[in-house]
Amino acid sequence: MDFFEKNHQNYLKKRLAYLNNDVKILFFTKDIDCSICKKTEEFLKNLVQLSDKLSLKVYNYRVDKSKSEDYDVHKAPAILILDKQGNESGIRFYTKPIDHQLEAFIKSLLLVSGNGAELPERLEERVAKIDEMVHIQIFADKESPDASQLAEMTNQLALANKKIRADMIETTIFDNLADNYNISRLPKVMINNKREFVGLKGMEDILEEIERVH
Predict the structure, then answer these.
(1) Within a 10 A sphere around the Cβ of 133, how many other Cβ atoms?
(2) Angle at alpha carbon of residue 124, lines to 102 and 103, rounded to 5°
(3) How far apart are CA 173 and CA 167, in angstroms?
(4) Alpha-carbon distance 151 to 166, whole Å?
(5) Phi and psi dihedrals of 69, rounded to 5?
(6) Residue 1 has what pLDDT?
(7) Which of 47, 55, 59, 81 sits at a 20 to 30 Å CA gap from 111?
(8) Are the beta carbons of 171 and 178 closer than 8 angstroms?
(9) Residue 3 DSSP label
(10) Residue 206 and residue 123: Cα distance in Å, rounded?
């Protein structure tokens, strides 16, 4: 395997060795207007070879319309992370997870496998009370280190409550969304298109923002 440099490959193998259970990755690609799609697919195909606990399914966003509809995928590239039973975790990456986003991506795989930090009990109770759909979108680019920390926290929230979905979206790929949402500073977080904030916040502050939506 020569996709990853030797040192990088060894590092990823060591990290993925901590996967507790199987994790399924779904990748939605498209043939037109997506220069990053082939590179992202190649990245994922090589990544899953580093652990027998990882598997990958690739769908064409436009051709496999029924799958896109089943998983409520409206844009590509899209990476969805499912647990060993094939249940959605609520964690999605609309990007090629490299640079600062790679750490958040690897941690999300570990989290869904059952090897991740647990929410403090006081926050767990509050998260459990959320009974309406919450859609968190983190807009970032590959140079946004704070976005990785935001993703780690929102991914924990998504895994703790199936009503929550957390998306990491790269603005350089989806520049139309960046324009639509008037994004000038990164990372920017939007919750149900109703509340937004820029920059890093702690878990409790993010949860407060979610609670204010409802």
Answers:
(1) 12
(2) 5
(3) 14
(4) 8
(5) -70, -40
(6) 47
(7) 59
(8) yes
(9) S
(10) 11
